[in-house]
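Course assignment 3, question 2. Fill in each field.
Student: A.L.
Task: Predict the tertiary structure for the chain below.
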Amino acid sequence: MASIDIQGVRKTYGVVPVLHNVDLSIHDGEFVVLVGPSGCGKSTLLRMIAGLEGITSGTIRIGGQVVNELAPKDRDIAMVFQSYALYPHMTVRDNMNYSLRLRGTPADRMVSVISAAAHKLGLDTLLDRKPRTLSGGQRQRVAMGRSIVRQPKAFLFDEPLSNLDARLREQMRVEIKKLHRDLGTTSIYVTHDQVEAMTLADRIVAINGGVIQQVGTPLDLYERPANLFVAGFIGSPAINILDGVLRRDGEHTAIEFGSGERVSVVSRIPGQDNQIVKVGIRPEDVRITDQKEGALTGQVELVEPMGLGTIVHIGTNHGTLKVFVLERRDHGVGARVSYTLPAAKIHIFDAATGERLSE
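Answer field:
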């Protein structure tokens, strides 16, 4: 196991910048997820750590050692790709012990290591089968097993579950999390799926346009997004974003929407009177209420039953709101409903910069 330190790393292809002065420290034994939209630079950063891409400038250290000029094989890391990259003519056992044989590992040691890894991954009964006879989830477990037996300093996962269906992705997320708990190996996981990021990570690194937007625990990013990008990318169903204006009247601060409706907010937030802002509120934080006093009103436009709860789309004077409710209540399309936006749950961002204003 080892820490990974990335300092001032840049990557350009010709004159096209891909990563801009990335600084990131990953602790020994930590599970860090790099998340962001396609093309944001997250896979490029992972490949630079692995040595599969050169860096334009900056420094990468693994276990305190500068690895900028080290070949991938000398970095003592293991990588699991989106494609399983298994040898089709080899059995599961031979795929898993291939790297051990190249290292000249004694036969008895290989047997014990393969047996332990296969047991952890539920592959005990599949060791003599060929990859073509396995399901997608089983093949991905073999690919992980091939990495585990090397006992590397770090695991690098490059969107390993993208080729699996929704149910298999759910199962594999659980297996990967259990595996990390058992092994405690430093792990970096790349995905564009924010659900994977939220469920797997000790810390999430949100990247957009080659720039780190925020680093923190899953709840840090969910409850206190640093900017509009993080607020909109993290969370399912996605956060509601409304246009508003900050109004200050002495000690009182409110958000005024285009309709003239106002919602009181915490008075100590920064910002000036008449400042144009973006207001974010999570669908589960909007409250549908039977009380009329102090509530806003809208009309139900769409109802999405989700099993666990229901997403109700409400057309309002300041845009469409998504509301996630747990109770199985019939909100008929076209019905008028009252709702509130609790001040403590509102996120306020500067409309010009997208940066967070609220505490």
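Instructor remarks: The two ends are 37 Å apart (CA to CA). The helical segments are 42-50, 92-102, 107-121, 136-148, 166-183, 194-200, 218-223, 228-233.
Grade: pending
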